[in-house]
Amino acid sequence: MGDLNIVTENIIALAKNSKDIYGVISFGSSNRKTKDKYSDLDIFLFTSNPEKYLADENNKLLKGYLGEILSRVIVKDFVDHVMVIKLMLKDGTGLDIITVNISEFSKTRHYLFLKRHNLSGLLPNKIKKYIDNNIYSFNYFLKRGHTILYDSMNLQQIVDTILELYKQDVKDEELNLLDHKRFFNNYHQFWQGCYRFHLKLVINDPLYAKLMLDHMIKVNLIQMVNWHTLLFKDEQKDIFYYGAKLNEWCDETIIQRLYDIFPHRNIQEMRKSILNTIQLYQQLSHEISTKKNYEIINTLEQFVIKNIQLPINVNETDCQMVCSDQLTAIINDYEDVKIVLSYNAKGSKYVINALEINMIFYVDHIEKYLKEETWKNIFDDILSIVIRKSSIRNAVEILLNNGQLIQLKLENVKDLYLLKRHFYLMKGFLCSFINQRRKKYATQKIDFLKQDLKKGYSVLKDTISEADFFEAMLYKINSSEKGRLTAAMFHKNYHCFWQNSYKLMVKLYRRDFFYAIVILDHAVKKHLLEMVQWSHLDENRFTELVADIRSIKDWCANEMQDKLMLTLPHSNIEEMKRAIMNSMELYKEVSGLVSETFGIELDIALQTQVYEQANNELLKSN
């Protein structure tokens, strides 16, 4: 825990001595009255050369001003979805840097002029929405407190204008908007998530249930808590994202009940915790629905609760008879469905017989399949349906009355041709011929497709003869990834784990337990699980496991599963702290094994500092 004032002065010195830096703004906890000894420094760095700082792997640019840097990693923040340079200094100070390209930011000034004079409508809606969303995000960072540390581009005027024009009531912020569509999207996601969680417990895979599924269930729950607080308590409450700073805005009764929702260390306790989660969610969602005149789906709730309370008896014959005919009809009879891929752990052609169906549809008219009416006309026994739309990938998730979950990813056939062109140009090192915007779009879609193909797949339908493309892509994946685990991959995991573990410890020190467990511990477990997977491999079997492809119980040794169960936090702050220490101790053991197997050097100084600091805090609390 260093002196933030000294770090701030050093950042200002860096800015003054760098011709490419035009402004620095600090935000976050260091700008609020609640600042404590663990507060870190979050800054926007306005520069004409962002890549210079993103590519500074050896910290040559920053080391001269900040002293010894214990850890550096660049990640996409799991809350704000922006690229962040995350640093941990030797004295324990955390520093998060978001670089801002001034050539892009300067366009904001012109847009603000149009908006102030009610002329922003002259721009195409797509562009207007894109700019507005970015400015709203920037405003969200600054509104709870900020300081302009350095300014050679008149940042103050731009910031003042943004805070004036984008001022919102808390209830009108994007994360807190409540309407019929948002409510039921959350509602269906929650109940389908609880049912999937239950299915994993039934097949005795509690680790998959906790590490892969529980996170989104809790995210849906806290969103309902947000809405309930604004609707019944105080519309002007300063609600923080994903349950952060819960003690500052949430009802004490709800906070106490939240301690009972985290999965414990055996299946019986996990079943109890998910029922506790459901009881709280039901109370909040029912009160909201009554206030807003929404109609709750009692049949869905009763179905999920009944299955969780009693061991399920799956009638797979019924699943075959009902779902096989309906899905076969789509595959065989719908002419605008051009390609259908099934994917799962084995890529079985008989995936239709399973309780969970995973498919990718390539279609001509994608909007048709993004409407509930389309699917309700196909299936006459839908219990729940969720439609997810995004610029990169669309999906439909359906729960049927017989307990079958159907998860379909929807793609436009035109995009397949774009991906194919991009793939072969990249393969031939002709990427310079690709438009940058299309290149980024195609790269993101290909990354998603890769993850699915790795799981094993079968082509159930192909009317346009493109199946060879998927084979070529899978061959490329296997060819490029079957080498050794690289030091870069290992160290990114290693630094992410220890930095997130440190922040997790800080959140628990502040008793900010919900954000600590649902957001930070989820990230910590992701890195721990990846390291555990690497420990199960030798250098000749590197590509056999992918993070969420198979049930954890299918590949993880029983002894290791028992150790992972001890890392699940629950019940109270002290139990949570102990579970975090168990995570660190297991990670030390496993990362040491992996580093020895693959000949990769550990950064012992980082590991030692974080572990000892966390252990000291735990001993103090005891």
How does this structure look, described?
The chain has helices at 4-16, 50-54, 60-66, 102-116, 125-142, 155-165, 180-202, 206-233, 246-249, 252-258, 267-292, 298-309, 316-333, 372-378, 413-427, 436-454, 467-481, 487-509, 513-535, 552-555, 558-565, 573-598, 604-621, and strands at residues 21-27, 41-47, 69-76, 83-89, 94-101, 146-151, 337-343, 356-363, 382-388, 394-400, 405-412, 457-462. With 622 residues, it is of the alpha+beta class. Strand 3 and strand 4 form a beta hairpin. The protein folds into four domains: 4-167, Beta Polymerase, domain 2, CATH 3.30.460.10; 174-309, Four Helix Bundle (Hemerythrin (Met), subunit A) (Up-down Bundle); 316-481, Beta Polymerase, domain 2 (2-Layer Sandwich); 487-621, Nucleotidyltransferases  domain 2 (Four Helix Bundle (Hemerythrin (Met), subunit A), Up-down Bundle), CATH 1.20.120. It is globular, with a radius of gyration of 25 Å. Residues 314-322, 345-353 and 539-549 have low confidence and may be disordered. It has 23 helices and twelve strands.
Would you summarize the structure shown here?
The protein is of the alpha+beta class and 622 residues long. The protein has 23 helices and twelve strands.
Shape: globular
Spatial ordering of strands, largest sheet: 3-4-5-2-1-6
Structural class: alpha+beta
Average pLDDT level: 85
Rg, please?
Answer: 25 Å
- Poorly predicted ranges: 314-322, 345-353, 539-549
Percent in strands: 5-15%
Count the beta strands.
12
Count of helical regions: 23
How far apart are the first and last residues' alpha carbons, in Å?
Answer: 21 Å
Q: Any idea how many domains?
A: 4
Query: What is the percent of helical residues?
Result: 55-70%
Assigned CATH superfamily of the largest domain: Beta Polymerase, domain 2
CATH architecture of the largest domain: 2-Layer Sandwich
CATH class descriptor of the largest domain: Alpha Beta
Q: What does the main sheet amount to?
A: 6 strands, mixed
CATH topology of the largest domain: Beta Polymerase, domain 2
